[in-house]
Task: structure prediction
Amino acid sequence: MGDAGRPVPISDGTGLVSRVPSLTERQTKIVEMIAAGYTDKQLAGRLGMSPGTLRAHLDRMFRAVAVHTRAALGARWLP
Result:
């Protein structure tokens, strides 16, 4: 992961950095947790935020990487 606040590139599954917008360190942590199977409720609790705040983060992330679901977001991260 990058330094605090610095964008971290998304893996394209081939070991190369994909040509999609980068995510912040916080957003990268959220994607890693989604890929690991955490539910929204678990994510919000672990990250110390409300479910509504988490949903806002997810919506921004969906737009940034052009996906529409948590599963698609997690899949973009997995190698």
